[in-house]
Amino acid sequence: MDPKISEKAWNPELEKEILNQWQKEKIYEFTPQEDNFTIDTPPPYPSGRPWHIGAAAHYSQIDMIARTARMSGKNVYFPIGIDRNGLPVELYTEKKHRIRMRETERGEFLNLCRDALDDLEAEMILIMKNLGISGDFTNYYRTDSEEYRTLTQSTFIDLWKKGQVYLANRPNNYDWVSGTTIADAEIIYEDLPTKLVYMKFKIKDTEKEIIIASTRPELICACKTIIVNPEDERYTQYIGKKVIVPITNVEVELRTHHSAKQEFGSGAVMVCSYGDQNDVALFRELELEEIVAIGLDGRMTEAAGEYAGLKPKQARTKIIEDLESRGFLEKKEDIIHRTPVSERSKIPIEIIPMEEYYLKQKESVKKIKKLGQEITFHPAMHKQILMNWLESINIDWPISRRRFYGTEIPIWYCKNCSEPHVPEPGKYYKPWSEKCPITNCNKCDSSEFIGEERTFDTWMDSSVSPLFVSKFGKDDKFFNMVYPASIRPQAKDIVRTWLYYTLLRCEQLTGEKPWSDAWIMGYGLDEKGMKMSKSKGNAIDPLPVIEKLGADTFRFWSASEINHGYDFRCNEQKIESTRKFLSKLWNVSRFLSSFPVIKSGTLNASDKWILSELDNLIKECKKGYDDYNFFIPAIAIREFTWNIFAAHYIEMAKARAYGIEFSDEERDGAIFTLHKTLSTILKLLAPITPFITEYLWKILYSSESIHKQRQVESENVEVQSNITKEITEFNSKVWNEKKSQNLSLKDSIKIEIPENLKPFIKDLKSMHNLLD
RNA sequence: GGGCUCAUAGUCCAGGUCGGUUAUGACGUCGCCCUUACACGGCGAAGAUCCGGGGUUCAAAUCCCCGUGGGCCCA
């Protein structure tokens, strides 16, 4: 009998053909019905080359979610989008063309950004397609499209009218390299070397002085008070006294506050506007009047007196010299200080009072907590990330950014009285280049307006992704059918941003939660467990890996190596060796392809045994698939296919399947069982490795795609795991015995079959050529 | 300083809820073998103080406590 499959190994080249076929047959097309399964797919951000291999693994798994849902009979809506707003592309464009954003005409700069995005996007789309992602690429969306930005602006206008947005002058995190305010969520902390300066402050009307340690002596001009811990006995006698600030000679009060740590520095702390977040909190709590010491240009202001115009770092050096020459310096220490830096530009942020727009969020925290409780997290432990974040929210969300490549804030100001005017929702507005659609100021009737130049924080765009894909405000019928979405898959590091902001915005706009499930994946690390980054040079380009080894190998690696929710290491060699399993599956199928597919047969003990193990495998896979944890089925299927089915059952049933010294009925039992097992394995594996399973399925079992099949269900057969152990141990014993006697595997040998294995005697005898 | 999480062979990882034979599997290494699905293979072998200390128990990789060291998050 000739096998239908003749090639000896799975050829990843075949994936292209299969891909074309899927495209031609449109097998993943979505038409909304009653019971839809909507995936709020993360739109990836094209920030540079290469795309992160961890992201490729991430999207492979998101596709497994879609395929799992489809095979469980759900009508899957799997949109694809690309996130294109924000700072990274501006920095990329500045670097690529060696220009500066603020020195380039805005329209021209935007065009350059758009071109860069198009390039990077093309590569990401190519990778996603090649990975076999079964999403809707024909209608893929961009967050910088007119349609998307219209939604962002419309939702803003809605919230503006509801009084959820306000303008406030507050200390803000300012990244003066990118020239913009940033949200708390965009700050990271880095341990940086700095000097801790011990300064002498005189107590007024005495000869005494106290020592104050600070890492920011240049802010001395903005010092408003000195605090000590109320339990610090060194300072009890000075509480309430005036202290003279060196250099500026300003008098400030010494008071107590629990946030002063006795063991840090001298225990006395100067409170300036603004050295850190604690200063901000203290100014608010003690109702101190702020002094703006650092300007938007990143330089010291007039308030800094003789240091005006210097950068804070220069001012620091100079003031240390001056303190020393004027006798105010006690000592300085080199320390490592946890410094807040901008996540994007990696530069220490300054806290500067600025006027920005805020979206109210504090009063929503309680509601969001409740929604969070209702959402099922996969894995459950990552709900904690959201809850911890909700605990720490203490200010509203600053949503305006002084950048170019983002959705414009749709506001015009009356040139005469400065009254802000917001246009009607439903259109995309560019106030920096367009005329105000409102003809007269509703306050002073003036007809001249100035357009707002700022853009939104990008999370304002991405936080409405579930609304965009469900056509919120555009197609009510469609919206009602697909919203709320079923699942939000995303990475762990953006729980406090993307996940949280989406909850906030969707709750504000619809009063509902945006999805019932959240699926959180860990980070892709390099082979040593370090975070991958372009600057470290440890990034792996996924494209050549996928091209060389094929999508299925990559996908199976992703499923079998990444325990859901935990960080994972990416190692090319590991990915390569995963291929062996596909090879095994191929060859098992090749062997089976020499036998006809038959509907039934008389089962013997071996057949019943492997089918019971198979049933157990189905249950195990279901456990994983129900939780969208692909690690469980991947490991279980590999173990079963390789180490039980191929290594033991096929060997036991081989002679019988060929019909050598067996009756036709006995033969059919073997052939039936072999096919039943393989077809089940293929279906169980289909969400993980869609290409090879499709190919084998079509050759062996049906002209209809495996991705149109329903997943197999357990028949609740009792497991015979003790028998499995005895069989594998007995087979090993025979192989070992032959080896120690220098016999070939086909040579005959005399070995006693254990009592429990008597029902398998005929198969075992033919397998090992056992003598009576 | 607080939270989450991890620690098991050269490497990755299972087991841990619910304590109980010889600690799972893969990669890699070594040896033998072309046995009509597969040399991208088969069989076999070597390789683990289950991070340290203490406690509970007849019995701890597993439960509890105290440390140590990584990763991430927050302040």
Structure characterization notes:
The chain is an alpha/beta fold. Among the domains are: 182-350, Valyl/Leucyl/Isoleucyl-tRNA synthetase, editing domain (Isoleucyl-tRNA Synthetase, domain 2), CATH 3.90.740; 567-768, Isoleucyl-tRNA Synthetase, Domain 1 (Orthogonal Bundle), CATH 1.10.730.10. It contains 22 helices and 25 strands. The strands form 8 sheets. Strands 7, 8, 9, 10, 11, 12 and 13 form a 7-stranded mixed β-sheet that branches. Strands 6-5-14-16 form a 4-stranded antiparallel β-sheet. Helix 1 crosses helix 20 (690-700). The radius of gyration is 34 Å and the shape is elongated. The chain binds one RNA strand of 75 nucleotides through helix 9, strand 25, helix 16, helix 18 and helix 21.
Secondary structure layout:
Layout: H1 14-25, E1 36-38, H2 53-71, E2 75-77, E3 79-82, H3 87-97, H4 106-130, E4 136-142, H5 146-161, E5 165-175, E6 180-182, E7 187-203, E8 209-214, E9 223-228, E10 242-244, E11 251-256, E12 268-272, H6 277-286, H7 312-325, E13 329-342, E14 350-359, H8 365-374, E15 376-378, H9 383-392, E16 397-398, E17 400-401, E18 412-414, E19 420-421, E20 449-451, E21 455-456, H10 458-462, H11 465-469, H12 476-482, E22 485-491, H13 495-510, E23 515-521, E24 524-525, H14 542-549, H15 551-561, E25 568-569, H16 572-592, H17 605-626, H18 631-658, H19 664-685, H20 690-700, H21 721-740, H22 761-768
Parallel strand pairs: 1-2, 3-4, 9-11, 15-23, 22-23, 24-25
Antiparallel strand pairs: 5-6, 5-14, 7-8, 7-10, 7-13, 9-12, 10-11, 14-16, 17-21, 18-19, 18-20
The structure holds one RNA strand of 75 nucleotides.
